[in-house]
UniProtKB/TrEMBL annotation:
Alphabetized InterPro entries for the sequence: Kinesin-like_fam, Kinesin_motor_dom, Kinesin_motor_dom_sf, P-loop_NTPase
Domain Kinesin motor, residue spans: 24-268
Species, as recorded: Polarella glacialis (Dinoflagellate)
Entry keywords, A to Z: ATP-binding, Motor protein, Nucleotide-binding
GO molecular function, one term: microtubule motor activity
SUPFAM superfamilies documented for this protein: P-loop containing nucleoside triphosphate hydrolases (SSF52540)
Gene Ontology cellular-component terms listed: microtubule associated complex
PROSITE patterns: KINESIN_MOTOR_2
Family: Belongs to the TRAFAC class myosin-kinesin ATPase superfamily. Kinesin family.
GO biological process: microtubule-based movement; mitotic spindle organization; spindle elongation
Superkingdom of origin: Eukaryota
Designated name of the protein: Kinesin motor domain-containing protein
Keyword Nuclease in record: no
Annotated binding of ATP, by residue: 124-131
Length: 268
């Protein structure tokens, strides 16, 4: 059963009994290490303390990093250390594999194969490490020449990343197809001539930009985003229409109208 409105005390259980029960909702925090330029500027990371084994609590200290004393801020208000609890907390030295294992993302993929819905998203300010956690690919300077912010973004080098560097998305895709391949094979107890289970994997990729939805797998979208970038540089709103969010009464769920879906036969 799946409690769609449940919090972290509810669990997702499989009728097959093939995978362990996991929390329906998890909130995890990952603290990134200081960047080279931050170290050069003399910045320190002593304002955060991790507690627990494995860590599940994080303490935000006053600016001087003292955990046992109070401090006055600019407005004369007393600052005290503040502690927050999460399902998991990952320190600056944590690896991509540790994140994958401790959050139980492999079990989450298993639930998807069994027919459940699952969502993983990263939230945080610019530069907090979302891209590294989610994809882990190597990035280099872009060679783009378009007059927009799109051309200034770093270019991704997918095949230069080592397996240890890969983040949540490529690991989840690889795990998904590995589990599907196993289930597609007939078991030893299957009647002669009977094949394994059948799966159809499709992928879509969209962006929400200024309250509009854009299909990033549609070749025509690149021109739209380029024009939006040029308009943004001049302080204008591109006025380009996005896709529409619709409600499917029969299936009782929302969907994005005319969103491209590509069939996938392997993780590559």
């Amino acid at each position: 059963q799946l409690d769609l409105h449940g919090g972290h005390n509810h669990v997702v259980e499989s009728s097959r009994g093939a995978s362990p029960a996991i929390p329906a909702v998890q909130v995890c925090v990952r603290v990134r290490p200081l960047l080279d330029w931050e170290c050069s500027d003399g910045l320190a990371s002593s304002c955060l303390q991790l507690a627990g084994s494995p860590p599940q609590r994080i303490t935000l200290l006053p600016r001087d990093g003292v955990s046992s004393e109070e401090e006055l801020n600019e407005k004369g208000r007393i600052q005290k250390p503040r502690e927050f609890a999460f399902n998991a907390v990952f320190g600056p030295a944590s690896s991509q594999q540790e994140v994958w294992d401790q959050v139980g993302l492999g079990n989450l993929v298993c639930k998807v194969v069994e027919g459940f819905h699952a969502t993983v998203f990263a939230y945080g300010q610019t530069g907090s490490g979302k891209t590294h956690t989610m994809d882990g690919f190597a990035y280099g300077p872009s060679a783009g020449t378009a007059p927009s912010a799109l051309a200034k973004k770093p270019k991704v080098h997918v095949h230069l990343a080592s397996p240890e560097q890969l983040g949540v998305v490529p690991r989840a895709v690889r795990e998904l197809f590995a589990r599907i391949d196993l289930l597609r094979k007939p078991s030893l107890w299957s009647p002669e001539g009977e094949t394994g289970e059948s799966f159809d994997v499709k992928v879509s990729f969209l962006q929400i930009y200024n309250e509009r939805l854009y299909d990033l797998l549609n070749p025509a979208t690149l021109a739209v985003l380029t024009s939006l970038g040029a308009a943004g540089a001049s302080g204008e709103d591109g006025g380009q229409p996005g896709l529409r969010l619709r409600w499917d009464a029969a299936k009782e769920h929302f969907y994005v109208e005319n969103l491209f879906e590509y069939g996938c036969h392997s993780a590559e």
